[in-house]
Queue: 2 jobs
Job 1
Amino acid sequence: MGIKDDKVKYVARLARLKLTDDEVSLIAKQLDGILGYVDKLKERLDISKDTPPMSHPNAASNPFREDRVRASSPVESVLSNAPQKKGNFIKVPRIIEE
Amino acid sequence: MENLYTLTAHELLGILDKKSVSPEDIIESVCSRAAAVDAKVKGYVNIDRPRAASGAPSGKLRGIPVAVKDNICVEGELTTCASKMLSGFRPPYSATVIEKLKAEGAVVLGRTNMDEFAFGSSCEYSAYFPTLNPWDASRIPGGSSGGSAAVVAADEAIMALGSDTGGSIRQPAALCGIVGMKPTYGRVSRYGLIAFASSFDQIGPLTKDVRDAALLLGVIAGYDEKDSTSVNTPVPDYLGCLTGDVKGMKIGIPKEYFVDGMDKEVDAAVREAVALLESKGAKVSEVSLPHTEYAVAVYYILSTAEASSNLARFDGVQYGHRCENPGNILDMYERTRGEGFGAETKRRIILGTYVLSSGYYDAYYLKAQKVRTLIKNDFDKVFGAGFDCILTPTSPTPAFKVGERSSNLLSMYLSDIFTISVNLAGVSAISVPCGFTKSGLPIGMQLIGDYFEEGKLFRAAHAYESHTDWHKRSPKL
């Protein structure tokens, strides 16, 4: 089963990524190749139900740091890379439609 | 006197102690060298006007020029991940590793080229230009830390920092004939490293020899409260591990790593290295890492899933590229990202989003996480049986030609087949030069160690190096 162009378009929308039609068909073809390789291996491997999924190499624990007030970065330096700003704010297009 | 730029950090520190040269002399020598040869190598994307370290007259790296991969933040200096998306980005803070370097008197020389956001194994996916292999300009230097490896090999930096998610330090180190180490996950703080796949990424050294790698890791390693995944375990005296002998060390050779289709010269060079270590008293025997063949598939599912999530932050809001005249917010996100990301980055975001999307999550993502456990268990079994390290080739082939694999993705992805399992498990590994092909291309071998056993890797690698001179050869430029 191949990956259709409209599937790639759907995923691109989820990823908030604009693709040209050429990019869509190229990526669909390339994903087919990669997922085909993955599928082939999957068929050969029998995973026991008891195998836990591994999300991280370190043992899971919640590291807390000491709760004390400390200095944060100055506003000017944090805003220095903003594409558009107004006063102490980052400016973006309207989010709520009128 | 020898040109200063040809020396290692530990050699330069010895000369500095005798006061026959100054840190300024070293910086001047390395900068002139970079100015003379970088047009042929194209390893740097930016060279700072380096200032001699003001403080730290007794620092462990005083006056040593260090090149830094373009994905490690240096306050106020351009840091772009070799992407249009971050063109003009100047971080408001420095990565912890940069603070540590500076505290020991090192001089940050410039930013090195890489595959965009570290997605690649050849440096061809940089938005700037491809870096070329100093040993043969028609070939790639490896990747994604190809710029860092190339400038160290070409004597344009004394040492360099890279990052390794699936082999991005070790593979270019092998292909450029230098030493490169991926430390244990959690050994080095990732604070200020622009994230690719957060459960795999580690910063590590690329150096001219093993002693320098031990020196540099000793400086950058350690717990950092700013990185909750860094591990609070003491940093050993790595230089003290360089005893020069391997007598009694147990080295495992995984049968799954000597496969059909591997380059014959690579195979022969690595087998000779095994024989040499054995002749010096190492106890060598075959071991098995049975799930090796699944590593590449598992990696490309999990790493792209993590990447698609990490790269969501590049949306045109707070920093980096923003498209012209956005209509509404969604239009701004989509066009900003469509314009700012290169082809390989787009592919990986789509693949990562796909495997995480509803209906595919269980079949791909969850399954891959389970196989990751099996791969980790493979390593645990070998190290649990008392092996000190596992020896493999670093890359199945020497450096390939520019353009040879950029159109065949699977062949590009498979070039990391020997390095990827290490990141999946989170263990440590080092690549050291172990020979040259007849046509003069470097070959590297990889030593893999258990969690936080970098000291053993340095010991074995240094012992090997002290009986060979591969690491002393330099490309003609």
Job 2
Amino acid sequence: MISIDNLYKSFGETRILDNISITFEQGKSNLIIGRSGSGKTVLMKSIIGLLDVDGGKILYDGRDFVSMSMKQKQSLRREMGMLFQGSALFDSLSVEENVIFPLNMFTNMTTEEKTDRANFCLNRVSLDNVNNLYPAELSGGMKKRVAIARAIVQNPKYLFCDEPNSGLDPKTAIVIDNLISEITHEYNITTVINTHDMNSVMEIGEKVMFIHEGQKCWEGSNKDILNSSDPNLNDFIFASSLAKKLKSIQ
Amino acid sequence: MKVFGEIGNYFLLMKRVFARPEKAKMYYQQFLIEVENLGINSIGIVIIISVFMGAVITLQTRYNLENPLIPLYLIGLTSRDTMLLEFSSTIVGLILAGKVGSNIASEIGHMRITEQIEALEIMGVNSAGYLIFPKITAAVFFNPFLTIISMFVGIFGGWLAAVTTGALSSPDYIYGIQYWFIPFYITYSIIKTIVFAIIITSVPAYFGYYVKGGALEVGKASTRGVVTSSVLILLFNVILTQLLLAK
């Protein structure tokens, strides 16, 4: 469980995050949604400590992340996995080497054990016979799967996904969404997903937070998001002509 | 003021670079990769440039030496000392700043804009240490070998030019390169090479590490890395010469 309490973040004079408070629950897909530039990425980067916050608390199962030293943060990060928007696979390493990398760095497992674990994770994301390929040889969807395999290889307690569907076709996007959701439930991970894709929200959004201009506007689940009375959220949800048409039919 | 900010950020980055490694074995493996990338892959260019520069130094000295009272073997001595004192350390350093420096800045810059550095950080890896420390140590370890290779090849290039053009006889040249040899010149050259190796790797790495934006910014960082490290090499060349050779 990750608890955010009164989080503030500014760049110069511009306030990007304004008094954000929420609890991301364990074993659930927690989604942060909002328009481009609303502060989603800044919020996620603040939660994982890639950006320093100006005020507020971030508690990882009660452990105060903001007040930790750099070493303590590095240690806690070993409990995290992250799927980046562009996958962020290491270009110079093969698929297998990418997945094994965290094991090489932080465990004393034998080569055989590491290979077994990598193969298990690659199988879990439905990737076979790609171990020796390099990231440049993979499609966008395959890169995302490899990135998920790398993120879960150390059995993380917390999984962060930044725009996991960007650049993917709708069908592959749903596959990736469902994969993240399955892994979340299977390993009881606290998963936080940053997205502006409404398909993802409807598919896997067990807990959804909508932020607008750096402020939390709405919190709920995918079951009640369509009935929200928040005008900014409704603007966001029904932005496309298709959604507007469907709403008018409804 | 911006310069002081940059210097401060550079030293803060170096503090992270020289922090204790998470796993020494991984850093050692990376060190070996960098020895190949930055060192072994530079042998070719060092040999080509050194042999031609040695030849040119010999020929130019010969054509400028018209006084019959000056013995011809001094041409060999001049070629040797030029290679030892200046060319093999400073000029090779400048060449490597171009080749290796741009490579490092663009590699790390690309990793920054494609979030690979963030990925390392999220894994709990000290990205600055893992990416930069092996490069610095590889260059500090291998560049002295490049300097020594350059010295031998440059002096050989001078001999080749002297003999093939008839500018100087082989015995004169060989006598010249043996005449009044001061071993400290080698030490001086190696010391300079080590300092230049740190500059060549750490400065472009700094510019690459803090890139923001896209491919255009990576290109700019690469250029800034090369230009800054070249200027620093020239500056430290003066400082080290004064410190090590002044009487």
